[in-house]
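P.,

For your records, the input lines for the assembly:
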Amino acid sequence: MMFKKLNIKMAMALVCGLVSLNLYTSNANAGEPTQGGTVVYLSSKIPSLNPLHSAYEVGLVTSQIFASLVRMDENNEIAPYLAESWEVSNAGKTYTFNLAKNAKFHDGQPVTSEDLAFSFDIVKKHHRFGKQMFGPIDSYEFPDPNTLVVHLSKPHGPLLLAATTPRQLPVMPKHVYGSADDFMKQDAHKNPVGSGPFVISDRKTDEYVSIARNESHFVSGLPYLDKIIYQNVQDKTAKRIGLRKNQFHLARTDSVMRFSDIKEFSKVDHLELTPYKGIAGGAIVLEFNNRREPLNSKAVRQAIAYAVNRPQISNVLHGGYTVPSRSPLPATNVFFNPKLQGYEFDLDKANALLDEAGYPKKSDGMRFELNLIYIAQPFMPDFNTLPAEFLAASLKKVGIKVKLEPLQGFAGWAERSAAWDFDMSINWPGDKTDPAIGVSRLYVCDNIKNQAYTNTSGYCDEEVDKIFEMAAVEPDIEKRRELYFKVQDILLEEMPMLWLFDTPSLFFNHKELFFPAYGTAEAWDVMYWKTKQN
Amino acid sequence: MIQAIIQRILLGILLIFGVIVLNFFLLQAAPGDVVDAMLAEAGGGDPELAARLRQSYGLDQPVYIQLIKYLGQVCIGDLGYSFYYEEPVAKLILSHLPTTLMLTLSALVLAVILGTLFGVYAAIKPKGFFSNFVTVFSLFGYATPVFWLGMIVLLVFALYLPWFPAFGIRSIPEPEDPLERILDIIHHLVLPTFTLAVLYLANYSRISRASMLDVMGADYIRTARTKGLSERKVIFKHALKNASLPVVTLAGLQLAQVFSGAVLVETVFSLPGVGPLLYESIMRRDFPVILGVLFGAATTTIVANIITDLIYKWMDPRIQSIT
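Structure tokens returned:
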């Protein structure tokens, strides 16, 4: 204990030293939070302010307007937010949440257990993953305005993780949102009322959204910033000019540039590259249509995995900004097994497997032909066109001819994917924080549906189903981990799809700006300027 | 005459409905729908939810029922509801229209005036330096892809010589003073207007040069000169009036396009106009918005055509297109 205290003091002294040094170098690294200032975020279009809207950028705004039940702290552990404390009982079937007593909505009304139950119900019904996140919620009890008892029909592992972000559980005032017949079409989405750290101050469709500090936020001292402006810019040249000229203080790299340009921009004096270190991740995968010959053969799928030099995609084509996937779970996932290494690059093995499987090379050196669907340029070529062309070249070397079929936009790709009309497809399923929400959906038999991002590969295995089911209802995190480790082993062996590379989110932020890149990367109430801004 | 105009208008309304029906069926041919696009963008979703969304958007019904419903709506002035923007389409388009009109109209006016002047002066000395310059400049303007020109203009006048803003229609926060606010918007519009005007200008200068050269050789010009009129009067009063008919035709055609905007220019300069709205809606398969913008564009085209006809008649009484 004594030592620990001393260390903190020493650390403090060091920090102070650095700060005072900074007065001369004007390049702060460890600055204390300062109050105030404005951050301009380089945004895409923000079509609506409906907290359940499908667009990524909408969630960036509504995550500041609404508060969630709990949140992730900087160590990626679940921490209190609207819920001061909570208790799990009855073998994981009952959750009791105690809400912060001073929590108020922006219109001054207190946040009550009624509002929380209302929000659970709305999310369950209208959110894209509502059923997976909160489906087992059965009934509520309201012992007092600040306490909500939630009864589940069965234990549900992902419940708390799902409640860590306002993207997934925005707590909404029932007296505002409860009156409309259709939740998705109502005027409240123009002027949202939440209990989060910021309030809407101004908005012009397709131009900008500006939000201002909520002066009576229930977490004292937060937020640090006075204002955040989400400025919509469409053109990449204009985005780059703005970023270089310090007109934006924060931007996702993938909205501005390709991986190959990041290095060049890292040299800009005032910019800093910050990788997101949170719990929600994703990977680009090469999905196989497991129903079709020859992809219904495990050996063929494995052979393809051996034939693709994935480190080359990540390290050369992506300049080292992506990571070759090692497991069906992205390495950022809480349940990822760090011992797994994935398939190495081995052309001999690939050729041998294909020969054995009964697909010898014909006179033209080819074994068979497969088509590959993906979203055409200009949509994120680093994740679509580039790997597609690389895959075609790689597979040609082992005698598999690939017919490239670029499709127009999400809708064009989603239609083919939903119709199961492909041999191979480049897909980008996120893990949505918990494997029970974002991963099992790609593999379990009862989710083989005519809809993109379900189990469109048609893979089906009873044991895998059973393990996913057990893991979803297991409240104990260690036991869940064991189960997910097991399922990762099985899937790696079966190779229903090839996990190409994990797609980390990278941000450019101003060097003087502390950007909280943990949790779900949207805790912008703790974002601050290290030096006082005017 | 009035009867003829009414006839034209009635015909126009019929035509607009024809355009709507055609567009409606064309859109059905596009792969995927708005629910596909929305769920795919969000990284997936529940098939039951997708079914419910399709139901609430009316996408689960047969195409002809959707079409009849839509036509009925349009008759009472309702252009539907945007699935993506979660707003009534008419309101959405109206909020994007001012930017587009400001841009396209000012570029058009600039191009018509400058282009005609270029053409006139080039025609005075058809072999002179200025004439050659106009020819080369027109070729350049005509052949340059407008997004490329936009990018170059951005790099030069927003980055290397930071005189103008690189994006948007206004500063944030906006200036308090109304006059400054107008100046701020003008400041933001200079580069896009210039870019678009160069594109238009090429057409006008070429056409007015050619048509002036045509007219300058005519008998009545010689007559005017022999009357002892000043060269200035001959050119501007006698020659230009007749030579400008092709210019009016072209301007009429382009006036029809002002509504749908200049997608590329508006996108390059991140202006919140109708063009990017249309583009975005096509990518998201947000059919009501696409149909709404196309409806507006069709209406403008037809109205512009009627107006052009009237101007024709005023400028050249020999033309009997209306009556």
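Two observations worth noting. The beta strands of chain B are 81-82, 87-88. The first helix of chain B runs from residue 2 to 28.

Regards
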